[in-house]
Design brief:
- It is built from one helix and no strands.
- By secondary structure, it is mainly alpha-helical.
- It has a domain of 31 residues.
- The radius of gyration is 25 Å and the shape is flat.
- The mean pLDDT is 86.
- It holds the Pfam family DUF6026.
Length: 58
């Protein structure tokens, strides 16, 4: 026996945000994007480095 599920249309949520909060969120977003770019560049640099020789295990 199959079950029938009633689906509802999606609800819209309205949010109020102050201008200073919006500016703060945009600043945080910009800082995070810069950090992501910095970390990507760091990782890319790590991938391009030749592997360090490791001592042989005896």
């Amino acid at each position: 026996m199959s079950t029938v599920s009633m689906t509802r249309p999606p609800q819209t949520l309205y949010v109020t945000i102050r201008r200073d909060e919006l500016h703060q969120l945009k600043d945080e977003r910009d800082q995070l994007q810069e950090e992501v770019l910095r970390l990507r560049a760091h990782l890319q640099g790590q991938l391009n480095l030749p592997a360090e020789p490791r001592p042989a295990l005896i």
